[in-house]
Design brief:
400 residues, Fumarate Reductase Iron-sulfur Protein, Chain B, domain 2, five-stranded mixed sheet, 8 strands, binds iron/sulfur cluster
Length: 400
Amino acid sequence: MNELTELKKVEQFADQCMKCGFCSFFCPVYQEERTETSVARGKNYLVRQVLKGNQEFTPELGEIIGKCLLCKRCVANCPAKTQIDRVVVAARAEMVKKKGLGFAKNFVFRKVMANKKTMGRYAKLFQRFQWLMPKTEGKVRHLPDFIKSMGRRNFPQLAKTFLSDQVKPVYKPEGTPKMKVGYFMGCATDFVYPELGLKFIDFLVKQGIEVVVPEDQNCCGAAVYFSGDFETGRMLADKNFKAFSDPSIDYIVTACGTCSSTLKDYQKYLPDTPDQKERYEAFGNKVKDSTEFIIDVLKIPPESFKLKKEFEGKTATWHDPCHLIRYQNIKDQPRAILKALKGLTYVEMPNADLCCGMGGSFSVYHYDLTKKIAKKKMDGIKSTNADIVVTVERTSMQAC
Ligand code: SF4
Ligand code: SF4
């Protein structure tokens, strides 16, 4: 029997909605579709009907709760502080409990992503056939991949040698380390941008920090548990908790905004027992994203960074990923670095916090919608005439 245990944990948030409709001004999906079921208010209403026993887990309901980017623009602007992200994710978890994952997600989440080493083996297999795929020149994670592929799909080039095949387990600085951090690499850095991971580690070591890179770390699990597979999500969270359980680790750092927000938020979305909650809280409280760590923890003056010669005289703009600005409130730190770089002109883009439209697997199932939302982002970028769009993973690296 389905007890709706996940939905009951978030019932209070669904009940908070006072139906004002303010979220409709901010929801990128509603702005394209103009249907009540696209927006937080409509989704909340349906979830409340499920909780009251008036609504079944039909394929139509699955489609509605699936059509959300989890961008949290509604949450950030809701006068009642309704946490629709938690309501939507819990509803997806109930849907998975009731209907299962389906063949493709079951295979990808439970057979591939559940184990990083297995994922690496599949990535290596894919690497051999990627010459068959349309190529992208975009090196900055998903934003350009989707913006550039307005008419066709692009695939990021996998690296020749993955980061996990290059890193050492421990990096020691000269002299006595001022602290010890665990480096969480994340799948994109591991398989697509290994040079970014190596540069970040090198940067940390030069700051006098001992860096450990646990071999047993896994995927953060964002795609998995945001799709409602809490079983695999909890397993990945527990594996990552164990991999970084050395009590002498002061911070867990990563240069991927999705990974940092996911690791911080295990405590919010996943706990099933008080013990799990306590563990996820202890783990999440140690996590820092790259620029947050550089500015807020290390307190490195932004003026001390030097611009690489190749960027001299260029104009740059910053795109706020949802996972940084609304999941972690990280907005000023990357801008502080960019604005302080001598030789670079910083220009703010209109609606810098607008979602890029990807939303993980959202773009797989709603690609046309993704393209329309990405077009708005692209229009904002174009209006700045910037030479470079900087976003999450490369910010600190290009400033070094
Ligand atoms: S803004 Fe908040 S309270 Fe108003 S309708 Fe949307 S979710 Fe409900
Ligand atoms: S999270 Fe984003 S896409 Fe989902 S309902 Fe809220 S504003 Fe719309």
